[in-house]
Amino acid sequence: MDMIFPRVCSQCGRTGLYLCLDCRDSLQRIGIHIPKHSRLEGHLSLFRYRGLVKAAIRELKFDFVSDIVPEISSLVVHSLVNQYPHLLRYWQENNFVFSPIPLHLRRKLWRGYNQSALLAEKIALELNMNTRSDLITRIKNSLPQSLIKDRRLRCHSLNKTFSCATTTPPPNIILFDDVYTSGSTINSAAGALPENCHIWGLSLAG
């Protein structure tokens, strides 16, 4: 299969890997920030949404290249282990659970999978943590946030988009999404969870 459909780097086109080692070295890191007026204790975006990361996410979301997931997940795990060991230890010692941001059923049927769920499950497995994809439901099929340029319209479009799907959610939750732009999506999802939950946000890019 690799001879017929070779793995090609999403940025430079070199064969062998979707995320070649040279292009990985060019990635720009972001870091942790504490959002204002949010349910989140903090949010971590790992990389700038450009170059290799942007190309890889687009391949996963729009070109249906789902076998890129292990390489992206490995990149996330490597970054957490080496760049944020104290935060990772805090999550692991307090039994934080990964909860991927859900897609609306229509969009999931069109794509065939939820890219954030695929990534979250693989990342959690490698970190010996748990994943729950049944905590939040997306009840409104809003426009993709990347298509809405006005920040105020982004926030408005996500009003009442999510609801909590369980009466007994875990106390410590990591909301995971592939891309963090204005923060409207993760903040809206966090708002659907009970007040006593401790919530962090994690995204591959921002």
Structural description of this entry:
- 36% of the residues lie in helices and 20% in strands.
- It is α/β, with parallel strands linked by helices.
- The relative contact order is 0.17.
- The protein has one domain: Rossmann fold (3-Layer(aba) Sandwich), CATH 3.40.50.
- The longest helix is centred in the middle third of the chain and has 15 residues, at 69-83.
- The chain has helices at 21-24, 51-62, 69-83, 85-93, 105-111, 115-126, 151-157, 184-191, and strands at 29-33, 40-47, 97-100, 130-131, 136-138, 162-164, 172-179, 198-205.
- Strand 7, helix 8 and strand 8 (198-205) form a beta-alpha-beta unit.
- A 6-stranded mixed sheet has the order 1-2-8-7-3-4, sandwiched between helices.
Summarize, please.
With 206 residues, this protein is an alpha/beta fold.
Chart the SSEs and their pairings:
Elements: H1 21-24, E1 29-33, E2 40-47, H2 51-62, H3 69-83, H4 85-93, E3 97-100, H5 105-111, H6 115-126, E4 130-131, E5 136-138, H7 151-157, E6 162-164, E7 172-179, H8 184-191, E8 198-205
Parallel strand pairs: 2-8, 3-4, 3-7, 7-8
Antiparallel strand pairs: 1-2, 5-6
